[in-house]
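Checklist before submission:
- one chain only
- standard amino acids only
- sequence pasted in full

Submission:
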Amino acid sequence: MTRRTTLIRVSRTVTAALAVLTLTVGWSESARASPQPAHTQHSAESISFASISAASLSRGEPDGRLPAGWRVTGTGAGQQLVWTSPDPVPMGDARVEFHSGDRLLGRPVAAQDRRTFRLKLDGIRLGPVAGLKALAGGRRLDGAGARRSPDARRAAGAAKPTAPLPANPVDPGVPGKYRTVSGEYALKSVRLPGFGAPVEMRAEVVSPVGAPGRRPLALFLHGRHYTCFNAKGDQGMSWPCEAGTRPVPSHRGYLRDQKLLASQGYVTVSISANGINGQDDAADDGGAQARSSLVRLHLARWADWATHRSSAPAAVRAAPPADMSRVLLVGHSRGGEGVNRAALDSLSRPPADQDGYRGPVRWRIRGTVLIGPTVFGQNPVPDVPSMTILPGCDGDVSDLQGQIYVDGTRGISRGAALHSAVYMVGANHNFFNSEWTPGQAEAPADDDFWDGDTPDPVCTPGKKARLTATSQQAAGATYIAAAARLFVAGDDRVRPLLDGSDRRAPSAGAARVLTHAVGGKRTPAFLPDTSMAVTGGRVCAQVDPDPGRACLPPEGSAVSPHFAMWETAREPGRHAVAMRWSKPGGAVRIRPARPVSVAGADALALRLIVPPNTTGTRLDIALTDTSGRRATLGGARIDGLPGSDRTASYWGREIRVPLSAAVRSKVDLKHVKSLELTPRSGSGQAWLVDAWGWRPGTPEVRAASLPRVDIGHLKVAEGDSGVRTYRVPVRVSGHGSGRVRLFVTDPGKDKPGYRTVTVRPGSHDFDVPVEVRGNTRFGYDITHSVFVKAVRGAVVGSHLGGLTVQNDDAMPTVEVKPVADHVTEGQSLRWKISLSAAADVDMDSAGFEIQPVDAGAELSTLDVDGTWLGDTFGESPAPARPLSKVSEPSFLLAVVPAGKLSAEVAVPTVRDGLKEPEESLRMQLMTFDDSWEPQKGPVFTGTVRDAP
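Returned file contents:
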């Protein structure tokens, strides 16, 4: 599927108005329709839509009409919501999603041209359309919001760089003592569940020369990018690559990182995943499980080769044997989500029917590095240390949702594993991979950051904050090496580079890198939730469409990685504390439901967000114990990150204040009642993400035995009679018990219901029954979606599933007969549309294209009721023009309501007081075949004569 000049076939008569027909109509003597099968569209929320007019479908205008670039095509079960971008949307890792307001409609499939995106509606009726949006990684793609006007942050310009942080005594970016050798292996392709074509087993190996003994292994997995290209520079998404094209060598894009690690004694391997990239568009999890399977298939081979060297490829035999008890996984973008899932699957088995690797686990994952990652499932592995790089100028996963790999681990397990977020100011998404970097790549490549109509003060190339490709790659390699040195080698001297201790690595050059972390030797203290009593501020919801509850305005340009959305527009259990002040001195007091302990800690570590580009926000921080003793720990100054309306820059800075003042004041640190934050700067805003007792060091991590939850998807036939109860397939494995939050969508409802469930292997606490009532009436497939997230003491693999009830009844046939096709002006021309049987759903039972008359005068816009004309076509009567020319083309629709057998199409005429010849209206019945090509049906004629 390389880029072609072949056009996607859209007939001139195929418009959105025509496309809303939901009956495929054939005809006999009385214009009968034949049935067509229904198909399933699985989405996170089942949305019920009210009908819209032909004008709404054929115009990109306000007041309920589809916005520009949007249309509906197809008929019946083949009906699709289509958005066409003015420019190609580059293939990337963030998923394109269609939203209506704050509701997720579904995830469309991209056409070969990367401009057209189609989402099957399966008979779902489209309702209020003014809120239609195409989003990717939180960034709006469609014309209504893609080019926003500059906001106050843009006008203010980027914040001026602060003084460099102190250098860390140990710099992990310094090359080691070993020379390196490179090579590649290609094994037999493998088949993965849900993927039609085999996936390649190809990898680039870089290893140290002369390193003694078994060496730790670092495995790299690239993200989602174009799969194939040709000599002309065209790129495509097919797999396998078509004749005349060859694979994009994305797996060779981390050679700099590999060579640095190899020089330090690591064996490194970077694996290719083009076969997944070319097939993952329909996977519920975006391909996370497939990538995990691929990673573990490679690890299994390396485990074999570690003991059977003679069977290894030459590139592997040239390397020292791998120590499979010390493995680091590095994933970029969707590769990040893939290695996260591989770490989980190495601790607890995924369902066999979803997994492409069935063998034993003969390795131990010591840590993961996640570079600009996606996290569609929001299911991080709590007991495997991680470092997540957040590129400040990411134009692909632009909401920086990878922050959830840090925040989402809080309270899930023991909390010993360190989870670090590394915010790299001025870095984009692509340049971490040299094969995605212009001037370095073999295939075509580009800068993923989008400039829009005006230069960005932070991220436009050439701006002071923006990193060059080589600077970004140097910083990336340095911090990957830091994670390897901490997680695998256990060198605590590099921890200050990752845990919010405000140290820099000289090898990262001029890159401004900021960090914070959870886990390690932190103890939880103040984690905002609704049980907290807050005075002077408020507990706000991180994800909520209600501006009064949300931490940041839901529709504004302020974006925080901490508040990344998931499957639902309102998510319980995620909160922060919002502060706003207009003068110094008004304390915000935060009191948890129960006293907390920070005993044994050296400092209180707070993660605080302030608006981008602000400087000098000052807060005093105090603790009070249950007996009333109070101590001011100290003051803190917080500066905002450089940001604009195109960056996700509302990010928590880690602030530490020593607890020594509390010790001197004899505050009982085992029983702390409240935290006070008192502004000392003139006016401002801040958000408390959380606060912890902190002390230095990196504890040994032992993974807890936790129950694991995986949701499956079941499809059942509706049946002709009776009531049957089915259950959504839920697999609970592992050991122990834990809690998850379960969300269930009921078709026709805008919001999912949810409850907290205790899960344990072998129990039946996690039960999602669905009643299915059989009948013989036509309907559309109905999906009951289920999604789940860990709350405490549990992990989640496949987070999304459900049950689809498939229609098994034939579509009713339709008859079209005239009721009044010869009328006097002032009366209505009418045709009756009858169904052979009532349906369970509204039926768009016929569509008529108004055509020029063969002879005589044609009915004009001044001959029909003006309100009807506006409602139907979005047009005004003047100037006079034939009805066949009122739009391109002019269409009339008829909807037979659910449970009814007939409806009428009416064209109301008006008396104009003019003496005119008889005027006519000529309409042809139209429908589509299975290829969306329009089919011509019978012609119907109506005539109007002057009133006496």
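Reviewer check: The first helix runs from residue 16 to 19.
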